[in-house]
Amino acid sequence: MEAQIAQELIQLANHDLAVRERLLQENKLSEGYNPDMEAIHRANVARLREIIGLIGWPTRSKVGEEASEAAWLIVQHAIGEALFMKSGYQLMLDVSDDINPQHLAYLYDRICFFTGKPQRYGTQYDKGKLYPVEDKVAVNRLRAEINLPVIPEQRLAEAIDAGNSADLHADADFREWRQKAGWLSE
Q1: How do residues 95-136 score in pLDDT, each as one tens digit?
Q2: Residues 45, 78: contact at Cβ < 8 Å?
Q3: Angle made by CA atoms 172, 176, 177, in degrees to the nearest 5
Q4: Pairing with 48, which of 41, 60, 79, 120 sits 20 to 30 Å away (CA)?
Q5: What is the pLDDT of residue 163?
Q6: How many helices and strands (H and E) does the chain possess?
Q7: What is the DSSP string of 129-170?
Q8: Nearest to residue 73, comparing CAs of 45, 95, 109?
Q9: What's the confidence (pLDDT) of residue 4?
Q10: Of 39-43, 127-131, 167-171, where does mean pLDDT reach its minimum?
């Protein structure tokens, strides 16, 4: 069963990436959340929920490296389902010794991005600039601990300024979408 699940996870992730690439080529990913992409993400989340119900989080020892990575990609792309992304992070944290630690870092930072808080590992960018980090001094040490490349000092210096804002996103439409998707509680 787990070999079959592994193959299915890989196929789901490959389909996601293929549609993403097609939409990029058609210049249809720059404005908001593309409905075709959202439909694929929601279908993938629904199937991953079922898989988690059957085997728990798809770890390397259960489904292999490639399928475990595919499961992470599905949760990483589940931007329209905040609760699922947050619960996926917790499930991954619980099996952190059997998954790629970089996946936890990317997912942690992605959750921070959508909740409007500074990230820890410097994996997320916004409009071509490094999204704010919690600690510019510690970020490269944290990245080294999980074998992520160093962020050059110039890139860190150019990072979006976190300021004193409780929410780092100023765009009203994006805020409305985040509320609808469950990223913001107010």
Answers
A1: 999 999 999 999 999 999 999 999 999 999 988 889 999 999
A2: yes
A3: 120
A4: 120
A5: 61
A6: 9, 2
A7: EEPPBS-TTTHHHHHHHTTPPPPPHHHHHTSPP-TT-SSS--
A8: 45
A9: 96
A10: 167-171
Gap between the Cα atoms of 62 and 79, Å rounded: 25
Backbone dihedral region of 154: left (phi > 0), alpha (psi from -120 to 50 degrees) or beta?
A: alpha
Among candidates 143, 138, 137, which has minimal Cα distance to 123?
Answer: 143
Q: What is the dihedral of CA 77, 101, 144, 79, to 10 degrees?
A: 20
Q: Which of 72, 46, 77, 44 is nearest to 57 (CA)?
A: 72
- Whether the CB-CB separation of 63 and 71 falls below 8 Å is answered with yes
**Strands in the chain per DSSP E:** 125-126, 129-130
Q: Which amino acid is at 81?
A: E
Give the contacts of 56 (CB within 8 A, at least 6 positions apart): 62, 91, 95
Give buried/exposed letters for 55-89 (b at 16+ CB in 10 A, else e). eebbbbebbbeebbbbbbbbbbbbbbbbebbbebb
Task: State how far the alpha carbon of 12 is from the alpha carbons of 18, 61, 107, 130, 146, in Å.
Answer: 10, 20, 19, 29, 26
19 and 36 in contact (C-beta within 8 Å)?
yes
Please give the structure tokens belonging to residue 149.
């490349």
